[in-house]
Amino acid sequence: MTAHGANPTLLYLPLLVHQDANVRRQACEIMLSTYGERSLTFLRRLLDATDPDTQAQATQALKVVSEVSGLRIELRPFRGIYVECLGDLRVYINGRDIKPDEWAQYDRGRAGARKVQGLFAYLVHMGAQGATRDEIGVAIWDGVVSPSSLARTLSSLRQVISRVGSPELAEQALTVGRDGCRLEPALYQTDAGLFERTFNQAYQTEISTSLEPAIPLYQQARELYTGPYMADLSRSSDWGQETRDPVSYTHLTLPTNREV
Questions:
Q1: In the 8-state DSSP scheme, what is residue 229?
Q2: Whole-prediction pTM value?
Q3: Which residues make Cβ contacts (< 8 Å) with residue 155, sequence separation at least 6?
Q4: How many CB atoms lie within 10 A of CB 89?
Q5: What is the C-alpha separation between 129 and 173, in angstroms, rounded?
Q6: DSSP of 9-47, one letter per residue?
Q7: What tens digit of pLDDT does each residue of 124-155 get?
Q8: Phi and psi dihedrals of 108, rounded to 5?
Q9: Which of 128, 133, 149, 175 has the fewest CB atoms inside 10 Å of its own CB, making it the most exposed?
Q10: Which of 148, 147, 157 is nearest to 114 (CA)?
C-alpha cells in the first residue's frame, strides 16, 4: 500500500503522459468515463507524493486531461478526506494518514480511541443519510449511549479532523443535530465506493458487449480490493451486510486474461 492509499489513477498515469497523443486522449476518456471528475481529485492527491517523478507526472497528466476534456483543473494538491474501507481502516486527511495514537489524543485510553475511530467509520458507512443517536448507540456502544458519552466522542472526533486537517474542514465535514449526525459526503471519498463503481461498470460492459473489453476494468477492481470491509473494526462485519450494493467483497472472483 502506498502512502496515498489505493489510487486508481496511478494505473492511468503512464498512459496520460505517453508520447503518443492518441494514447493520452484514449486514456483520459476511459478514466473520466470510469471515475468521472473524481478522478481529478485522485490525480491531485498525487501532487503530494513523496516521489518527485510522480508529482511531475501528475502535474503533466492534469494538464493533459484539461486539454483533452476542456475541464478547468486546479494544479494544487487535494485537500479533503480519503478513507480506505477495504482491509484495515485507514483515514487520510489532506494526504496525511491519521496515526493510531491520534485517535486517542483527545479521549482517554485505548477504549476511547476505538470509540472515536468507530464513530468516524460508522458515519462513513452511513453516507449521506447520516445516523441517529439510537443507531450510533447500537452500532458503537452495543446499546443506548448517554448524551455525555456521545458528545465527548463527537468532540474528540472533531478535534482529530481539526488537528490533522483544519478547524474549517472539521466544521464543514461533521454535522451534528438534535437527532443525529453525519459526515458531509462531498468532503470525503472511499476505496469501497470506487471499487463498487468500477466493478459495476466492468459487469455492465461485459453484459452489453463482451468479456474482453471488461477485463481492464475487472483488473482495476482487483487492484482496489485489498481485504474485507473495515476488517480491523469488530462491528464492521455487521455493517458490511447492510451495504446497498449486492457485491460480496469477501467471496469475489474476478476474471483474468486467461479467461478471455
A1: B
A2: 0.72
A3: 106
A4: 20
A5: 14
A6: GGGTHHHHT-SSHHHHHHHHHHHHHHHTTHHHHHHHHGG
A7: 999 999 999 999 999 999 888 899 999 999 99
A8: -75, 130
A9: 128
A10: 157
